[in-house]
Amino acid sequence: MTWKVIVKGKAKGKIMKTKDPINFLGAVDKKSGIIRDELHDRFQQSIKDTILVFPHGIGSSVGAYTIYSLKSNNSAPKAMICQKSDLTVASGCALANIPMITASKEQYDSLKDGQKINLDTDDSAIIFHE
Amino acid sequence: MVLIISRVVIVLLLSQERCTILYLKRNKLTMELTKDEELALKGEKGETLEMAYRILVATGEATNADRLVPIRWAHISGVNYNTIGDAGEEFLSDLSQHAKVQVKTTLNPMGYDIDNVSEYDIGEDFIEKQESIRRSYERIGVIPSFSCIPYEIYDLPEKGTQVSFAESNAAIYANSIAHLKTNKESAFSALASALTGKSPYSDLRKNDKPNLTIRMKLENPDELTFGLLGFFAGKIADDSVTISGTKELDKRSCKSLCGGMGTSGTCGKFVLNNEESGSEKVDFDDKEFQKTFDELNTTDTGDLITLGSPQLGLEEIADLAAMLKGKNFKKRCMVFCPRAVQEQARKLGYYNEVKRAGCEILCDCCTCLTPLIDKKNVDAVTTNSIKGAYYLKNSNGVGVNLKPIRKIIEEETK
Q1: Which residues of A touch B150 (CB under 8 A)?
Q2: 3-state DSSP assignment of residue B206
C-alpha cells in the first residue's frame, strides 16, 4: 500500500469522509467552511478542523483561493486526504500549509468517517484511535 | 502489542487509547529539480520564489510530473473579488510589493465593467477591493486582459508550445483545439508559473491517449447539448477523454463543451475521434442528457438573460447581431465579452445592433461568479451556459433556466 505526500505536515483530528468530490469555489463557503452545494452528500456540514477525506477536487481553478481563504479565516480542514490529487487542491494546500496526501484505493477505503487519526507525513503510519 | 521502538509506538503509549495503526509505504518524491530550483525552494532566492516553487513541487507531485519545464505564456485566474475575497486581496497586495512575472501573463475576468458599474448595485467597498486587486496584478507585470477566452483575443503560439492556463475552459480549449500544452492549472499554479516561467511536466502535457470514449448519441446537437455533454464527460473522465459521434464543432458549441467540462471535473483535454479505440466506452444519450439537464436547470423561466460564460468572442457577437436583426428583447439581457472584442464589435457595427436590441454589453467580467446578479433582486436567470448555470445556482443562489441561443432569441424577443 502506498501513499504520496503532496504537502508535508502533521495533523490530528476526526475524519470527515465525503462521498462526492468537492468544488471548493462553488460549493464551500470560504468564511465558515460549510458546504453549500445542495447536491453534495455533506450539504450544510462544515469541513472546519476536520481531516477531510474526499475523492478529489473538481471545477474552478480559483478553488485554490477558497482553500487559502479558509485557512486565513480559521475554517480550514486540518489535513486533506484524497484518492486522486488535482492541481487546485494541491496548490491551495501548498500555499496554505495544509498537509495533504493521496491514498491508494485500498487505503482510501479503509479510512472511516468519524475516526480520530494522527497523521504525520514524516512517519510511515497513520494511527487510528478507536 | 508489538514492541517496536519507533516514534509511532511512543505516540501510542502516550495517548493511552486503543489504536489501529495503518502502516503505509510512502512513494518517494518523483520530481527532480535542478540545483537552481532546489535553492529557490529552500528560500535562498527570496520568499516569493520559495512560495512559487513550493506550489510547483506540490502540483508536480499531484500530477505525476518528473521535472519542471519552461512555459511561454501564463493565464491567471483569481481576479474577481467576489471569488478570492479579502484573504485573496491581501495576499496579492503583499505579493505585488516584490514579485514580477517572468513570462507573458494574461488575466481572467474581474467583478464588473468600470464603464457602467454605477448602473449596478455594487458597493464602494467591493469596488475598492477590486481596484486593489487590479493594481496588484498590474504591479507584478500582468497584462490586464480580464478575459476567460485568451485563445480568442491573442495570437496563438506555434503548435506544441507549453503554456500554463488556469481558467479551466481556456486550458481545455488550449489542449484540445489550439494544439498547445497545458495542465488544467489552478489559480496558484498558474501564478507560480508566471513568477518562475516554469510548470510541472505532468501527464496532461505528454501525449497520453485518453482511457475513456464518450459516444455522442444525440442528433443535431446545439451548444446547450455540447455544454451538457462536457459537464457529463468532466464528471467521469480522468485527465483526458475521447468524444466520438460528432463532427467538427462550431465556435459556440466548442466553447460550451470546454466550459461545461471544466466545471464538473478534472479533465483537461478532449479528442474528437470517430474511430473506435480500445478504451472504455460510455454513451451520452437521451437519458444522460435529461439527467444532466435536470441537475442544472431548476426553473422554466428567468427574470433576465445572460449570454457569455465563457465570454463571447467576435464571431459570436457578429452572429448574435445577425440573429437580433429587427428584434428586441422582452426582458433584460446581459452580454459579456472581452474589452478587445467590444472595441472590434464597435468598429464593425455589431455593438450598436446588439445594444439596439436591448442588450447590456459588459466588458472585463463574466456571467460566471458575477456580483452583478443578486438573489435579492433576481429569482432566476435564463442562459445557454452550463458553466454559468452551475455557478449561478451554487454561488449566486438563483434559479436557472437553460435554453439554447436559438430558443432564447425565438422566445425572449419580439
Answers
A1: none
A2: coil
Of A60, A61, A69, A104, catalytic: A60
Answer whether B232's CB lies under 8 Å from B88's CB: no
Residue found under cell 436547470:
B297
Our answer to whether residue A60 is catalytic in this structure is yes
Nearest to B107 by CA among B71, B73, B59: B73
CA angle at A116 for the pair A10 and B3, rounded to the nearest 5°: 75
B312, B337 in Cβ contact below 8 A?
yes
Between CA B101 and CA B109, with CA B105 as vertex, the angle to 5 degrees is: 125
DSSP B140-183: TT-B----S-HHHHSPPPPTT-B-EE-SHHHHHHHHHTS--B--
* Dihedral Cα B291, B294, B295, B296, nearest 10 deg: 130
Quote the CA–CA distance of B268 and B164 in Å, as a whole number: 12
φ/ψ (deg, to 5) at A126:
-105, 135
Task: Note whether B192 contacts A: Cβ–Cβ < 8 A.
Answer: yes
Residue in A36, A56, A69 closest to B87 by CB:
A69
- SS3 percent helix, strand, coil of chain B, rounded to 5, is 45, 15, 40
Helix H or strand E segment including B65: none
User: What's the rounded Cα separation, in Å, for the pair B176 and B226?
Assistant: 15
CA of B329 vs chain A CAs: smallest distance (Å)? 30
Tens-digit pLDDT profile for residues A27-54 = 899 999 999 988 899 999 999 999 999 9
B48/B172 Cα distance (integer angstroms): 28
> A3-19 burial, b if ≥16 CB within 10 A, otherwise e?
bbbbbebebbbebbbbe
What digits encode the pLDDT tens for the residues B255-280?
999 999 999 988 999 999 887 677 89
Q: Over chain A, what HEC string results?
A: CEEEEEECCEEEEEEEECCCCECHHHHECCCCCEECCCCCCCCCCECCCCEEEECCECCCCCHHHHHHHHHHCCCCCCEEEECCCCHHHHHHHHHHCCCEEEECHHHHHHCCCCCEEEEECCCCEEEEEC
The answer to whether residue B87 neighbours chain A at the CB level (below 8 Å) is: yes
Chain A hits for B47, Cβ within 8 Å: none
Q: Whole-model pTM?
A: 0.92
Question: Rounded to whole angstroms, how far apart are CA atoms B140 and B150?
Answer: 19
Q: Which of residues 343-382 of B touch A (CB under 8 A)?
A: 369
Query: B171 and A60 in contact (C-beta within 8 Å)?
Result: no
Tens of pLDDT, residues B161-214: 999 999 999 999 999 999 999 999 999 999 999 999 999 999 899 877 899 999
